[in-house]
Amino acid sequence: YNSNATIDNGTCYYTAGTFLVGDSGLGGIVAYIFQPGDAGYIASEDHGIVVETTSSPNNGNVWGCDFVNVSGLGDAIGDGQNNTATIIAQNCTDTPTAANLADNYTDGTYTDWFLPSINELVEIYNGIGPGATGTNSNNDSNNNIGNFNAWYNWSSSQSSPSSVHAVDFSTGAQSTVGKSSSLSGRYARYF
C-alpha cells in the first residue's frame, strides 16, 4: 500500500508529472526526476531522488575506509544506493562512516536511505540546493529549498584509495577530499 499513490487501480503508481523538483513528499524533498538514459527511468512514470528534509544530526563524520580501494563504486545517477551498500560491506574500522549513517537513517517512514553518488549530488545541488532555479508545484523558488549548509557534502563515489568526490554547496564546484575529512552529508532515496 502506498498512501502517496495517485492511481487507484491496485498498482500504487504515480501519474507522471505528479511531482516536481522541490515538492515535499516521499520522506523528504524531490531533488531530481529521472530522465531518459538514467538508471531507474520509466517512461510515463515519475521516479527520481528524494533528499532528507534537513541535515541529519550526524553531520561532520568521516567517509571512512581511508587508504582502502573500495572497488565497484560508480559515479552515475542510480549508483548511490549500491555504492552505499558496497562501502558498508568493506567493514571499515572508522565508525560511524557517512555510508553507515545514511543506511541507518529513517525519517519515521522510509528506511532505504543512502549516500548519493557524485552525479546524483550534483543534480541535488542543481535541483534543490543553492544552484537551483525554477519553482515547485506550490510556486515556491527551488533555490536552496533544501536548506543546505554552504559546505562540502560527501558523495558515495571514490576518486582514489584516500579521497572521495564531493560538492561544495556554497559554489556547486566538484572536488576531491580526503576520506578522513569531516564533511556534511545529505541522505537520499529513490522513488
SSE series: EEEHHHEEEE
Give the strand order, joined by hyphens, for the main sheet: 1-2-3-7
Distance between the termini: 14 Å
* Bulk shape: globular
Summing up helix and strand content along with how strands pair, one would put the structural category as alpha+beta
Q: Based on DSSP secondary structure assignment, what is the total number of beta strands?
A: 7
Work out the helicity level: 10-25%
Mean residue pLDDT:
89
Radius of gyration, in Å, reads 16 Å
Biggest sheet features: 4 strands, antiparallel
Strand content: 15-25%
Oligomeric form of this entry? single chain
In the predicted model, the low-confidence regions spanning at least 5 consecutive residues are none
Number of helices in the DSSP assignment: 3
Task: Describe what this molecule looks like in 3D.
- There is one protein chain.
- With about 190 residues, the protein is an alpha+beta fold.
- The chain is about 15% helix and about 20% strand.
- It has three helices and seven strands, in the order E-E-E-H-H-H-E-E-E-E.
- The strands form two sheets. It has a four-stranded antiparallel beta sheet. It has a three-stranded antiparallel beta sheet with strand order 4-5-6.
- Strand 1 and strand 2 form a beta hairpin.
- Helix 1 packs across helix 2.
- The longest helix has 11 residues.
- It is globular and about 45 Å long.
- The relative contact order is 0.22.
- The mean pLDDT is about 90.
